Amino acid sequence: MSVPPAPPILLASTSPQRRAILAQLGIPFDVVPPRYVEREEPGAKPVDVVRLHAQGKARSIPGEAGDRPVLGVDTTVVCGDRVFGKPHGPEEAVEMLEALAGKPHEVVSGLCLVTPGWELVEHAVTRVGFRELTARDLAAYVDTGEWEGRAGAYAIQGIGASLVDRIEGDYLNVVGLPAALLVGILAERFPGVYGFG
Fold first, then answer.
1. What is the mean pLDDT of residues 88-99?
2. 48, 67, 74, 143: which is the annotated catalytic residue?
3. pLDDT for residue 3 is more than 70
4. If you placed Cys at 112, which of 55, 116, 169, 191 could pair as Cys (CB 3.0 to 4.6 Å)?
């Protein structure tokens, strides 16, 4: 008796990193750009913000979903009391990387899964430490352009790995999707359907 194929998850994101991680995990998915506009949330804790944005993205496309689960994700970088989003230019990228150099920081992701019967919002935190960086290190990395569109101005899965000297937690969360969290949810809520649990 053949097992019916798992219904593809609807990914409410245009992130190539998130698509690559889902493909790496063997989770079938389709992509629909979210119709959610992120707003500044003055005074809100970073965990609350990423959870809110992930939920907003997942909720923004229910019409296309049918019975399929919709996945929304949002990620930010936190160092001390400062939140680092995506830099707007090379000067801001240098400033962000200088602020992270030699210090630990946290990559915080919110994840929301919406189905016709339930909605779940969770988050994951990965701790990352940068080595001390010289002006030459900063200039060389920023010249790669890899920082563009990246929270915290680096991509750990690329040349940005050379900036990192330690990591604690889910590596794929730093890449762009809290994979361990997602796999745990799928194993619990859809045992066997997506190959987990």
1. 97
2. 74
3. no
4. 55
